[in-house]
Amino acid sequence: MPRTFHQVGRRYGLRGPWVLHAVGLALSAGTLVRVGGVNGSGKSTLLRLAAGIDTPSAGRIEGRPRTAYVPERFPPALPFTAYGYLTHLGRIHGLSRRTARLRAEHWLDRFGAGAYGDMPLSELSKGTAQKIAVAQALLAEPELLVLDEAWTGLDAEARDALDDAVTERVAGGATVLFVDHDPGRLAGAVTAAYEVSGTSLVPVAQSAPRVRIDAQAPPGTKLPDALPPEATHETDPSGTVRFSVPAAHSDALLRALLTAAGTWHIHRVHPLAARER
Questions:
Q1: Do residues 9 and 57 lie in contact, with contact meaning Cβ atoms separated by under 8 Å?
Q2: Contact predicate 212/76, CB 8 Å
Q3: What string of DSSP letters covers 43-55?
Q4: What pLDDT, in 10s, does the model give residues 12-57?
Q5: pTM above 0.85, yes or no
Q6: Exposed, middle or buried by CB within 10 Å (0-12, 13-18, 19+), for 10?
Q7: Where are the domains of the chain?
Q8: Residue 117 and residue 105: Cα distance in Å, rounded?
């Protein structure tokens, strides 16, 4: 288990008020965990504790996963180019220089920032600097990824790319803990949700997550005989069939498509936001 909170409390100063008190939280492998709450409620404090940046004032936190953290504000005034910074961080994570550089190029390209790799961080726009902040967290393939408003400042394509990257990390067995101001962010894939209320962490009930699978086959191809329970589908004008299925049955639907008569091409697999289900 990557991280477990046992009656954790945090306050600033020996006699300062408790920001968090008696918090219990189990962050299991392969889960996506959302934290909500009003501004100033202690969400960022919780994430900093999970990332190991802050230490508890009371209680204890167990587990030492390989962790990466994206803060709410990225400090761009560092004496590096974008590639230099990412390569340096990769080396700190134990990657070879070549591997760190290749992963830096991969993630910058994926977030649409490859053209800025040789530019000093101090000269980057806020949005591009945020892409660097996200890239540094992903290049080390962390077991625990902590994202504090990481989508803020990203353009629409980069936000989608981060959604996909988070889904991939979770599918690969990592844990992702995040805060975001958009209530629909990754709603279809969230495993557990909490809200910071007062000094406590309160569970929030989640609707059953669903996954959409876009697939296409030659004209006249029949649907698989046995679709998983609660699977639905519709065909758009291009001939693409948009399947919707409970997340627990998504693998079964993929198997049905890939082993069906005819040739099905899978175009995209992604979680559905709550408003789409």
A1: yes
A2: no
A3: HHHHHHHHHTSS-
A4: 988 899 999 999 999 999 999 999 998 889 999 999 999 999 999 9
A5: no
A6: buried
A7: 210-276
A8: 8
